[in-house]
Amino acid sequence: MKDYPTHPDLYMDPVDAAEILGVATSTLRTWARTGRLDGIVDWFPHPTNGWRYYRAGDVYDLAEERGKTT
User: Fold this and answer.
1) Strands 52-55, 43-45: parallel, antiparallel or unpaired by DSSP?
2) If 0-12 CB within 10 Å is exposed, 13-18 middle and 19+ buried, where does residue 60 land?
3) Using CA atoms, how far apart are residues 39 and 36, in angstroms rounded to an integer?
C-alpha cells in the first residue's frame, strides 16, 4: 500500500488537487467535465457550493503517473 500524505479515501478540494497535479484548477474542471478523469479519479460535486471534490488516493496516483510528486 502506498504511503499517502492523507488517507487515500479522503477527498480534496480542486485547489489542492490541481496543485498536486501541476495544473490549473480550470484544467482540472475541464478534465472532469469532458470525462478525462472518468475511471481515473473519483470526484463528486459538493451539494451546496458546486465544487468538485477529488479522491485523494486517485489524485496522488495520477500525479505519480504524470511524473508529478510532492
Assistant:
1) antiparallel
2) buried
3) 8
pTM, full prediction = 0.74
Q: Which domains does the chain have, with CATH numbers?
A: 11-65 (1.10.1660.10)
Q: Which residues lie below 8 Å from residue 60, measured CB to CB, with a gap of 6+? A: 2, 4, 5, 8, 20
Instruction: Report the candidate in 32, 8, 2 with the shortest Cα–Cα distance to residue 18.
Output: 32
Which candidate, 20, 41, 10, places its Cα nearest to that of 33? Answer: 41
Nine-digit cell at 45? 460535486
pLDDT tens-place string over residues 7-57:
667 888 889 999 999 999 999 889 888 888 877 777 778 788 888 888 888
Contact partners, residue 48, CB within 8 Å, separation at least 6: none
